Amino acid sequence: MSTPLSQEQKTVHFLNRTSFGPTRSEVERVNRLGLRPYLDEQLRPNSLPDNLLEEKLAGLKTMRLSNRELIELYPPPQVARQQADQQGQGMMTRQEMQRPAMIIVELQQARLLRSIYSQRQLFEGMVDFWSNHFNVFSAKGADRWLTTAYDRDTIRPHALGKFRELLLATAQSPAMLFYLDNWLSASPDSPGARFGGQNNRRRGLNENYARELMELHTVGVDGGYTQKDVVEVARCFTGWTIRQPQQRGEFLYEPRIHDNGEKIVMGTRIPAGGGIDDGKKIIDLLARHPATARFIAEKLARRFIADQPPASIVDKAAATFRQSDGDIPSVLRTIIDSAEFFAPENYRAKIKKPLEYVASAVRALGAETQVTHQLFRYVGRMGEPLFLAQPPTGYPDVASSWISPDMLLTRMNFIADLVGNRLPGSRVAAEALRDKETFLRLIAPDGLSSATRAAIAESEGGQAIALAMAAPEFQRR
Amino acid sequence: MNTSRRNFLKSSGLGFLAFGLPPAYLVRAAGAQQGARNKTLVVVFQRGAMDGLNVVIPFKDPNYYRLRPNIAVGEPGSGAECAIDLDGFYGLHPALAPLKNIYDKGQLAFVQASGSPDNTRSHFDAQDYMEIGTPGIKNTPDGWLNRCLDEKKTSPAPFRSVALTAQLPRILAGAAPALTLSSLEEFRPRNIALGNALQKLYANSTDPLFRTGGENLFAAMNELRQIESKIPATAERYPAGRFGAGLSQIARLIKADVGLEIAFSEIGGWDTHANQGGATGQLANRLRELAAGLAAFHRDLGDRMNDVVLLTMSEFGRTASENGNRGTDHGHANVMFAIGGRVRGGKIHGRWPGLAPEVLYEGRDLALTTDFRTVCSEVVSRHLGQQELTKIFPNFRPSTPLGLIA
């Protein structure tokens, strides 16, 4: 594969990497505008109208509610029972019986709808990227009510912003504070830890957030920190907590449990008495640490270029990260507008993750979907149940994680159901299946492999499209 | 996948699935090659780092109660919910009560203060090290369970090694084909004609990743169809959820004599940084599910447990002292379980290092006295009969065997 990509291949490759898969209209738009102006547009997502998507999202009520409203309207089962008891069984309306599980269902629906229908495709891809980078597990305790705002108010506003702002927003988000237990972390010697009796749960230090902040969010596991640094960072973040996690779910700095002593983190002295600024200094220190620039650059290059990205592009992206003070669009432009990005060896070098696979199939077919539970359960059975990654790593972004026999079979079964119009709530128009040649040109501008061509030649009716979409070529992007 | 198998699949094309022609000779050959009742090693990985000190509880070590004022489990006889005496020094967490009679029968052993010697407290690095079997060395390409298979002659049986997980775990990744599946019943194509066409397409593909992936998938599906009449349903009650379902299916595959040598399952939720509870609570709930699953597996297999060793492991233990939130942070040594008819059970193996401040690892964690590779080496050699241990655990010389396997 040393021949440079053709113009048509370049367009499809570009859309495969910067969106959830090419559609006919986007290919036309790239051809009309040119790659660079199209990329500029995608890097300024607010300039792109998104009316179709807004209509589709309009029915998802929970997406607009605050933490407090969600807790009130979708109460935990025991609270719902209490309310029903107080009001008498007959008074219990359907609304009061709303189950918290609906919140995660709507989050999953919204994520899929956005991935499929948004015009701001690069932005949505970055939301997916940061949601995994700053993963929270929405089924952990209070995170059932806190993840909606996390997605809407923490990740999305900064997904194409400055890394430091994004990092600070996650550090102060109730969802992350709860997920990695920092809301409980207290200086053991502080007044807030020493008094309050047996029911006081905040009586000492918790290292969970401090460790993952360094290992996963910023400098990486080889970023040069020690166990001592983990403890020092944890001390800096004492007092970063949640006001009434089960009722209001707001960020709160609580000075009564903060450790006011001096700390030394990776050689930097944080003087005593800094209060809430201790944590902010750590955010600054880590966001501007050269190991962070490299760690984030490599992870982005892995997503946009190859599982093992070339060192040259990681170097350039890390340099842009440092020079632009962590400006995410600048780093993306370095990675995407590069020789490495369009190098022939990186064409179809990535395996689609389940979300990418499902969204790209629906997009390529121009299918109508309501995103029923059958659809997002398919994403789950392929190994990527959305908002439900338990470990703080989020979901992996390398090929080997996604093509076990079970996952591969589920992909094939999904295509059989989608193309066969047996997926409730989703509809593929008959015309979409009829014009085979145009479709194949969209998903494989360089032609299909001989194995896929032979299989299609022997197939009947709508089977050709299903075969092309379940074939190895379409599993890659 | 060896060449003859690939050729067989190619030449048969759509054939045997569509017309039901069973490659019975292959199944028989596989069975004959390994003997009708081969040995099986089952590994259960507890992801998230289980708090071993609250599982096999050193109730006679006074430091234990000093370090854990709010989360310690009371010593045997101290109340309704307290540790179950094992040997006068250690007690079992009460949520593990269903395992006590397996212990009393001598088929359950514990290895206390065991684990990986690397000092990382990163879940992900520590899990990796335990799965690839080379603590401290990250670039080992394959998992040690896969290397257990690699040593033997290639066999066409796709059920030699099975992970009941969605993703192929690192511990099973490598040259020998390993199958992942989450449900024996749902492991079939939704559209038979499409499935047949895809089998051929993948077999002819020049994309190596998908050609191999497709071959593994279709070989396993096709052979599952051939043997499924032999696979008994389970009458045993396993706990609800993926862990119980996985163990139940492993037991069915063992009983079906499909040549299962290595099985892998996992159970998460052990990362108890806050409010982990003592005799009851968060950790107790995880242990209850673990115990229900292991006890059901043991009952289900009955005499077949003579051919089985089940080994549990978790990436590291947790801090010896409780943290400020009645939980525990990432620590070092942990406890492993071994269950099987030929396990020298009814005892706690491994030297107890103590919990006094001066003997704690890095001043905070239970010190390690048995490398997990010593435990695994013994099981692999004594149970699976695999003698080339240097290939399975390179650059590692196991200490004196614990005498874990009879």
Report on this model:
The complex is a heterodimer of chains A (477) and B (406). Chain A has a two-stranded antiparallel ribbon with strand order 1-2. Chain A has a two-stranded antiparallel sheet with strand order 3-4. With 477 residues, chain A is mostly helical. The two termini of chain A are 16 Å apart. Helix content of chain A is 53%, strand content 4%. In chain A, α16 (290-304) crosses α17. Chain A contains 26 helices and six strands. Chain A has a domain at 351-475. Chain B folds into two domains: 36-182 and 239-392, Alkaline Phosphatase, subunit A (3-Layer(aba) Sandwich); 185-230, no CATH class. In chain B, β3 and β4 (91-92) form a beta hairpin. In chain B, 56% of the residues are buried. The model of chain B is unreliable at 1-35 (pLDDT under 50). The interface between A and B is large, with 61 and 56 residues.
Topology:
The complex is a heterodimer of chains A (477) and B (406).
Chain A: H1 7-18, H2 24-33, H3 35-43, H4 51-57, H5 67-73, H6 77-87, H7 101-117, H8 121-133, H9 143-155, H10 163-171, H11 174-179, H12 191-194, H13 208-217, H14 227-236, E1 240-243, E2 250-253, E3 263-265, E4 268-270, H15 277-287, H16 290-304, H17 311-323, H18 328-336, H19 354-365, E5 368-369, H20 373-381, H21 405-419, E6 426-427, H22 430-434, H23 436-443, H24 450-457, H25 463-470, H26 472-475
Antiparallel strand pairs in A: 1-2, 3-4, 5-6
Chain B: H1 3-12, H2 15-19, H3 24-34, E1 40-46, E2 56-57, H4 62-67, E3 84-85, E4 91-92, H5 100-104, E5 108-115, H6 123-132, H7 144-150, E6 161-163, E7 179-180, H8 192-204, H9 208-227, H10 242-255, E8 262-267, H11 282-301, E9 308-314, E10 334-340, E11 348-349, E12 370-371, H12 372-382, H13 389-392
Parallel strand pairs in B: 1-8, 1-9, 5-11, 5-12, 6-7, 6-8
Antiparallel strand pairs in B: 2-4, 3-4, 5-10, 9-10
Helix pairs in contact in B: 8-9, 10-11
